[in-house]
Amino acid sequence: MGVLATGTRGEILAIKIAVCVKQVPDPDTPPSAFIVDESTKRVVPPPGTPPVVNGFDLNATEAALLLKDAAGGADVEITIIAVGSEFVMDVVKRPLSMGADELVLVDDPSLENLDAFATARVLAKTIENQGPFDVVLCGRQASDWDNGHVPLVLSEILGLPCISFARNIQITDSGVRVERSLTDGYQVVEAPLPAVVTVTNELGEPRYPTLRGIMAATRKTPTTLSLGDIGVTNEDVAPSLELTRLFVPESERNVEIISGEDEVDAGRQLALRLREENLI
Amino acid sequence: MAILLVVAELNGNVVTESTGELVAAAKAVASDGDEIVVAVLSDDPAIVGASAAGLGADRVLTVQHEALAEMGAGSFEAPVAAVTAISNSLSPAAILLSKSDFGSNVGPRVAAQVGGGFAQDCIGLSSASNGRISVTRPVYGGNALAEYVFSGDGVQVLTVRPTIFDPASGDGASPIESFDAPTDVGKISARLVETIAEESKGVRLEDADVVISGGRGLGGPEPFEQLQALADVLGGALGASRAACDAGWIDHSHQIGLTGKSVSPNVYITFGISGASQHMAGCSGSKVIVAVNKDADANIFKDARFGVVGDWGKVLEGFRAAVDDLAVS
Ligand SMILES: Cc1cc2nc3c(=O)[nH]c(=O)nc-3n(C[C@H](O)[C@H](O)[C@H](O)COP(=O)(O)OP(=O)(O)OC[C@H]3O[C@@H](n4cnc5c(N)ncnc54)[C@H](O)[C@@H]3O)c2cc1C
Ligand SMILES: Nc1ncnc2c1ncn2[C@@H]1O[C@H](COP(=O)(O)O)[C@@H](O)[C@H]1O
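Above: query sequence and adenosine monophosphate SMILES. Below: predicted holo structure tokens.
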């Protein structure tokens, strides 16, 4: 793995950052349009709804770009890595149009719905193949299977420290300094580089692509790798969990709509009703 | 005969309620003759072991190391090394942790070391054939439920969502043994520098009987002051959707949901929240959900017991006036 390139006075000359991004079905699909095919155990996206880059992975891209903005004289190179199949080019190029430098796609039909351990093994091989990197950034979890563990497994495979839920990242002389979000406050954690860091939405909104960024992204050709290219074996992609059933839980609407002479009165009636039920 | 290993979670010097829930979860998949072992990781397990001994497990294993102070918070490397060592020594069929900051960071890393796969945030557990465990977990933000069976024959590692199981308890005290910490517990590369706690004013969200929660529909920060004032009169706490927190209208410590806090009040009253599954994941344990939303088709009305279709500002005005009248009378 990478070690920061430094100059004669110890100043940082170059930082190589990998950002792992996943293409996922749009999580803003309203529950009424969320459909599962129970026989194939797959989610059926509503027609005309394209996939998106997982939201937290755009936060991770933003984190990489903030490191680039803050780097001063150092040369920062940001490589986006996505593992999957049926990539929609406009979608996976979004991090490039935000300002990332390179896109690496590991594209193979067998990679659709890979389980988290297998994904981590494929990502590890890709990172070894494309590296060395000083920092590997990931999202805190992917909005399809809500696993939240690919980056942690990845860090163990690579033998690197992993700091999760970053809301702020700084590269220092001695490594990386991360503010990790807690539900009540935050922690400051430091680790030597290389390291894996997962990013949360508390980092702030990802920047919008600029017109220049979009033009630049259009001109870039992604590096496409097959499993053979990076030496992934059948054993690497063997699942450790078998999905036996996928279904939408039943829920019936059971709401008592409270009205009044007008909206203010409806609010009054609501309070009285809740008092009647001893709830307030 | 198999061993089911529960990793205790500590709050100061006592095990948390969620640890008792893990023992209950382990009992749900244990067969006759299986042994449930609770591991306690601490810099001073002498004080903690006793609180773990009352959970009804077959035995308690304590591991002591200074790097396990506060359970290795922040870096999590020490607990990963400790649990891996216990696993290598006991060869348990499964390792159960709580879906908390600790469990969701330690679990996957231990699983990567001991190798039989990892299931996050389980809400149901049952035993399948050959000692394998079948789990149910919410996926797609809670829009769907997935059932999985661990394949292969490695150690099955999983986290259990808090409050799903009723905590187990035992009559007698389980025997306490100590387990020698392996040397690599002290070899830590990431280091916790400091923890900055956000002090919640008034009632904690997690403990509140009444939660008043606001979303993007409120349109700005000021309405949250009105909701806070209402929460204060009702002796409750203030929640928010992620959209409102991301907009900077209210601090993220108020966020309820899949990636925020989980609350289970008697009544959860929302203003201007659409009811996305990722939000509902954090309040589905509420006894009663109340929705105020101007869109009669909003998803929140599917989960709500009471609702008003209307503008939050007007509805809140009447609601607050009635609450004040009730307080006087
Ligand atoms: C992986 C992942 C994790 C997530 N985790 C969380 C989480 O932990 N918590 C969370 O909350 N979200 C989470 N989200 C985001 C979630 O999907 C929704 O985007 C979010 O909850 C929407 O917030 P909202 O209901 O406030 O906003 P919207 O969905 O925009 O809803 C606003 C509502 O306000 C109503 N409204 C507008 N004006 C008025 C008015 N004047 N009076 C009354 N009503 C009005 C509208 O009808 C609408 O229903 C997550 C998303 C992902 C992908
Ligand atoms: N197929 C994938 N390709 C690239 N990165 C991924 C992939 N799956 C997961 N990740 C990364 O791991 C993070 C957590 O994913 P998960 O553990 O699946 O919830 C994501 O936010 C991504 O950064």
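Residues A 20-22, 54, 56-57, 60, 81-84, 116, 119, 123, 138-139, 141-142, 145, 147-151 surround adenosine monophosphate (ligand 2) (CB under 6 Å).
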